[in-house]
Design brief:
- The protein is mainly beta.
- The chain has two domains: 1-83, no CATH class; 84-161, no CATH class.
- Helix content is 4%, strand content 62%.
- It is built from one helix and 13 strands, in the order βββββββββββββα.
- A 13-stranded antiparallel β-sheet has the order 1-2-3-4-5-6-7-8-9-10-11-12-13.
- The longest helix is centred in the C-terminal third of the chain and has 6 residues, at 148-153.
- It is globular, with a radius of gyration of 18 Å.
Length: 161
């Protein structure tokens, strides 16, 4: 990656950062303000076809951020999200999930898998906020939760507690 830092001893991102795949192809261009994503982000697949466009807002007073997914293209080049609306699929590390977006935010039922924790999950969103979720582990045991952090923690607690 290339970009600027506000502190030479620790990486505190500020301004435009460009991330690259190992083969040297551009992966993403992201803007940062005081180490927080802010403004437009563009992502590409390794073959350099466009993947998605996002917009980030960061409020330093409330310490809250929001990401809107504006446009998304599949690996085959089909645009499935236009102006924040449509079907979106994302892979973040070992977690894949897909569902509908409305005005750039998750809406309705989302399905996903966490390959590290060996769970599949179904979550219900309203305007980007998780309302409820159910995960199923490799033993086919179901757990209910109401926050993303509980999705993984729920491995230890049965849903009837």
């Amino acid at each position: 990656m290339t970009g600027a830092t506000l502190d030479r001893d620790i990486l505190k991102k500020d301004g435009e950062f460009i991330y690259y795949y190992k083969n040297g192809a551009k992966e993403s261009v992201v803007n940062y303000v005081d180490d927080h994503k802010s403004g437009k982000e563009i992502n590409w697949y390794e073959n350099q076809s466009k993947k998605c466009e996002k917009n980030h807002t960061w409020d330093p007073k409330t310490k809250r951020s929001q990401t809107l997914i504006l446009n998304f293209w599949t690996k085959e080049g089909e645009q499935t999200v236009i102006d924040g609306n449509g079907e979106y699929e994302e892979t973040d590390g070992f977690i894949t999930q897909k569902g509908d977006l409305k005005n750039g935010l998750k809406q309705g039922v989302w399905q996903g898998n966490d390959f590290v924790h060996k769970i599949s999950f179904t979550e219900n969103y309203n305007k980007g906020i998780l309302i409820s979720g159910v995960s199923i582990n490799e033993n086919n045991t179901k757990y209910s939760y109401s926050s993303i952090n509980e999705r993984i923690a729920s491995k230890k607690m049965p849903s009837n507690h």
